[in-house]
Amino acid sequence: SRRHAGISHSEGLWWIQDLGSRNGTTLDGKLVTRVPLPAACEVKLYDAGPVLRLEVKAARDARTVTSSKLRDPAH
Q1: How far is residue 63's CA from residue 46's CA, in Å, rounded to a whole number?
Q2: Phi/psi at 47 (nearest 5 deg)?
Q3: Strand order in the sheet with 51-55
Q4: What is the DSSP string of 13-30?
Q5: Which of 5, 37, 44, 58 is the right S-S partner for 14, CB 3.0 to 4.6 Å?
Q6: Pairwise CA distance, residues 3 & 29, whole Å
Q7: Rg (Cα) of the chain, in Å, rounded?
Q8: Separation between Cα atoms, residue 4 and residue 6, nearest integer Å
Q9: pLDDT values of the chain reduced to their tens digit, one per residue, 75 residues
Q10: Main-chain phi, psi angles of 36, to 5 degrees
């Protein structure tokens, strides 16, 4: 897919969203459609693609989520 996934900021958190890609987007090994990014995670855009390691650095009092608390509302 030319445009595979997007990252945006809303509701005080950073989010990753699959943009309707053919092979999906995985976050820490789980297929997702739109979820908040945890402080540290691994994103993969397709099976043979590289692993992207993301780290969200925020102010000490900023809202954050942990990967164990992530829920994909579409699944």
Answers
A1: 29
A2: -55, -45
A3: 30-32, 25-27, 40-44, 51-55
A4: EEEEEE-S-SS-EEETTE
A5: 37
A6: 20
A7: 12
A8: 7
A9: 678 999 999 988 899 999 999 889 999 999 999 999 999 999 999 888 889 999 988 766 666 665 445 555 554
A10: -70, 145
Whole-number pLDDT of residue 72: 52
Quote the tokens at residue 63: 């809202």
**Amino acid (1-letter code) at residue 32:** V
Q: In one letter, which amino acid is 10?
A: S
3-state secondary structure of 69: helix
Amino acid at 3: R
pLDDT at residue 44, rounded to an integer: 95
Q: How many residues does the chain have?
A: 75
Q: Which two tokens stand for residue 11?
A: 């509701």
What pLDDT score was predicted for residue 68?
A: 47
Tokens coding 58:
């925020």
